[in-house]
Design brief:
The complex is a heterodimer of chains A (330) and B (287). By secondary structure, chain A is of the alpha/beta class. Chain A contains 11 helices and 13 strands. In chain A, strand 3, helix 5 and strand 4 form a beta-alpha-beta unit. The termini of chain A are far apart. The N terminus of chain A is likely disordered. Chain B is α/β, with parallel strands linked by helices. In chain B, the strands form 3 sheets. In chain B, strands 2-1-3-12-4-13 form a 6-stranded mixed beta sheet. In chain B, helix 3 packs antiparallel against helix 12. The chains are: A alpha/beta (330), B alpha/beta (287). Chains A and B meet through helix 6 and helix 10 of A and helix 3, strand 8, helix 8, helix 10 and helix 12 of B.
Chain lengths: 330, 287
């Protein structure tokens, strides 16, 4: 009304002296209304575009967690706050309260501890990464993530790329944890003309016999993440000792096994997972189309190759493929 | 002036001796410098920066290069960089060096630094390459990529430049809407499409051919949507008017493909060998 009256008064030159303070007041009110309305209008057009993301890191001192957090932040154009569960962010109760009262629009959980805390206490959507075997976690409708393991077809394609003469690869697995994975991997191996031979291990004590049955039948052994096969550190040491005695190269799923004797380790590339998590967080916040399965596979691989062992086992290496290797160990 | 008069008048022999001593010292210094430069007595460096790949295998690459170079000159060394700006700030101050750079980067750098391309990398018998944009078969047109993720193994600046070539004539906001996912290598980018992590991949033609041979099922999931202009592979470039010492380093690089350690190092760069650029090819690079 004030604005209308002012505009009406504007038509009368005789009211000029009275009009000026009214005009000023009306302008101030209009500006105030505009200041209040514009952000509301913008937020309706792009929901939560100015939202904050809370990064919940299980332990920022762990190098791979720090690397993925850096990659995430460098690729996200949204303000972030962070809490480090191992870095003096307060007692467990204080952390829970922090999460419950957080005004963040999305939580990015790095590692299992962070994810479990977030899934129990936060109402916001969650994006996770760096969780081993994410399928064993409780997943809500508002949970998205980047798996920690490459789809089996990726390492198998890279085995074929690096070692084109490989024909058979053996895998030790437990039915409890990896029955479905093996069925899928056998199909993926056939796509790259590799025969994948699985050998069941029902209990850790069966490892020596299972190895004795498998090794003579294969060109190489592929070590997968299986808590029955790798029950203890000694299980891993025994596995490498017997494989080496049989002159069979071992391909592993983690760089740590290169120190124990693996010829090759193929893992998911950590910075790439951070980039993917950032894109996924943006998609969720901006209401863009997200993948129906909610959890993406890692898009990048990291390859470590031990050249000395390639020569020791006499396996033919496609030297043209060296450009795909991230780390060569002599 | 009084001092000069006194010196001139009082001790002519001492002055001549002083001048002679200074001349001898200067000559000795200059000769030492010349010898040092000719033999790389201090250090001759190969500086490397490649925005076409994101593989970051620098530790292994340096170890491999340094091992190869050690057989030819104890003061040769290889220095890779992952930051374009730092690379450019370092090479501008070093004349006893050569650079391994992409032809895209050379075109940007030659406006800032006087330099001459001398060798070009070869792979599969060719020294040129095209970048191919391959998409999931569900996508049949560039316009359908609006807002989608593209897996790339090169730097963001380089990849955007290549995508602008491929999207030439399309609305600029279409290219701007593309979301790049940086992966370490071409083969990852291609498989990212097959496994649903990206809508398309920007890779070399050779990588596509490798995937065809490696995993025909994954290859069949891809459709070629476009290609960039052909560009030269990695170049070996020297500062204009480079020193003689650099010539011997260049010769050492040029013979890499004939030594097994050198050939493996080249393979880590995705190359099989080098060839001397002809005058005509050098002209092409100046355009």
């Amino acid at each position: 009304m004030e604005t209308t009256r002012t505009l009406a008064a504007n038509s009368s030159s005789t009211a000029r002296a009275r009009r000026t303070p009214r005009l000023r007041r009306a302008t101030a009110i209009a500006l105030w209304l505009l200041a209040w309305l514009v952000p509301w209008t913008v937020s309706c057009a792009a929901p939560a575009s100015n939202a904050k993301v809370l990064i919940l890191n299980s332990n920022g001192a762990v190098k791979k967690y720090a690397t993925i957090e850096n990659a995430f932040q460098s690729n996200l154009a949204i303000p972030t706050a962070r809490l480090d569960l191992a870095g003096g962010s307060g007692s467990p109760d204080a952390l829970k309260e922090n999460l419950k009262s957080s005004d963040a629009a999305l939580i990015y959980a790095i590692g299992s501890n962070a994810y479990q805390l977030a899934s129990r206490n936060a109402k916001q959507p969650i994006v996770f990464s760096s969780i081993l075997n994410w399928r064993r976690q409780r997943m809500g409708d508002n949970v998205y993530g980047i798996a920690n393991e490459l789809p089996s077809g990726m390492p198998l394609s890279l085995f074929r790329y690096l070692f084109p003469e490989l024909k058979t690869i053996g895998v030790l697995y437990s039915e409890t944890f990896n029955k479905e994975w093996l069925a899928e991997a056998v199909g993926a191996a056939a796509d790259v003309r590799i025969e994948l031979i699985g050998e069941k291990v029902a209990a850790p004590s069966e490892l020596p016999q299972a190895l004795a049955r498998l090794l003579p039948r294969v060109d190489a052994l592929w070590l997968i993440s299986d808590p029955v096969v790798l029950a203890t550190e000694n299980s891993a040491i025994e596995l490498f000792r017997r494989s080496d005695a049989g002159k069979k190269p071992v391909f592993a799923y983690d760089d740590v096994f290169v120190d124990l004797g693996a010829v090759l380790a193929i893992t998911a590339d950590i910075p790439t997972m951070g980039i993917q998590a950032a894109k996924l967080a943006e998609d969720v916040l901006m209401g863009r189309e997200t993948p129906p399965e909610h959890v993406q596979n890692p898009a990048g691989s990291h390859i470590t190759l031990h050249m000395g062992r390639v020569q020791r086992y006499g396996i033919h290496l496609n030297r043209q493929a060296l450009g795909a290797v991230n780390r060569v160990v002599e | 002036m009084p001092d000069a008069t006194r010196l001139h008048a009082g001790k002519p022999a001492a002055r001549i001796r002083g001048l002679l001593r200074a001349a001898v010292l200067t000559l000795a210094f200059c000769w030492g410098q010349a010898v040092a430069q000719e033999n790389c007595a201090t250090q001759c460096t190969i500086y490397f920066y490649n925005p076409e790949t994101n593989i970051n295998n620098y530790v292994s690459l340096k170890a491999s290069f340094d091992t190869y170079l050690a057989a030819f000159g104890k003061n040769y060394r290889f220095q890779p960089f992952d930051e374009k700006d730092i690379f450019e700030s370092v090479i501008g101050n070093d004349e006893t060096s050569i650079f391994l750079i992409s032809s895209w980067h050379y075109r940007l750098l030659r406006q800032k630094l006087p330099m001459q391309p001398l060798l070009v990398g070869i792979s599969g018998g060719t020294f040129e390459q095209k970048k191919i944009l391959s998409a999931s078969r569900k996508i049949s047109d560039l316009a359908q990529l609006r807002g989608k993720s593209i897996a790339v193994a090169g730097s963001t600046a380089y990849s955007k430049n290549v995508l602008e070539q491929i999207f030439a004539g399309k609305p600029p906001e279409l290219v701007a809407s593309l979301r790049l996912i940086l992966v370490p290598k071409d083969i990852d980018a291609l498989m990212a499409v097959g496994y649903g992590m990206a809508a398309a991949a920007l890779t070399t033609e050779k990588s596509l051919n490798d995937l065809h041979a490696l995993n025909p099922k994954q290859y069949d999931l891809l459709a070629r949507l476009g290609a960039s202009r052909a560009s030269f592979r990695t170049l070996v470039v020297a500062p204009t008017g480079h020193m003689r010492a650099v010539e011997s380093l260049l010769a050492t690089v040029e013979r890499m493909q004939s030594e097994s350690a050198g050939a493996d190092t080249l393979h880590m760069l995705g190359l099989d060998g080098w060839k001397r650029l002809t005058a005509m090819e050098q002209q092409v690079l100046e355009q």
